[in-house]
Specification:
alpha+beta, 6 strands, elongated
Length: about 130
């Protein structure tokens, strides 16, 4: 499964130097794009097919705050590509402790017709893990 290393930056933190919830969501979306890229669907390829992603619901559960300059990694724990993409990613600190989990729902967007569409079946299959 895909896993990416990062360091908490100044843009990610609040006044208490703890990573903000919006940063967790942003890193999860980056991980999703990396996952799609690794499976042959770069942003350029999606653009060429006039496909985009529209972020829907998300749920953040924070167990322990990640702090400014702290190293961490994100791992996709499970995913499902159906009419929507459902992804659960976990954030681990350098001690390999799970600090947070984000469950996110993303829909496919037809950039030409400007509307949400079901998963294009000719490009993607149902892939539960």
């Amino acid at each position: 499964m895909i896993c990416i290393n990062y360091v908490v930056t100044g843009q990610d933190v609040n006044d208490d130097m703890e990573m903000e919830s919006t940063a967790y969501i942003s890193y999860t979306l980056r991980l999703l794009y990396r996952f799609l890229f690794d499976n042959g669907f770069s942003k350029e390829k999606l653009n060429a097919k006039h496909l985009g992603l529209q972020v829907e619901n998300h749920e953040l559960v924070c167990y322990k705050n990640l702090m400014f300059t702290e190293s961490f990694f994100i791992k996709i724990e499970n995913y499902y590509i159906g009419d929507k993409i459902k992804i659960k990613s976990c954030f681990f600190n350098s001690k390999n402790e799970c600090c947070a989990e984000v469950t996110k729902e993303v829909e496919w967007f037809d950039c030409v017709r400007k509307k949400v569409i079901p998963t294009p079946k000719k490009y993607f299959h149902n892939n539960p893990v």
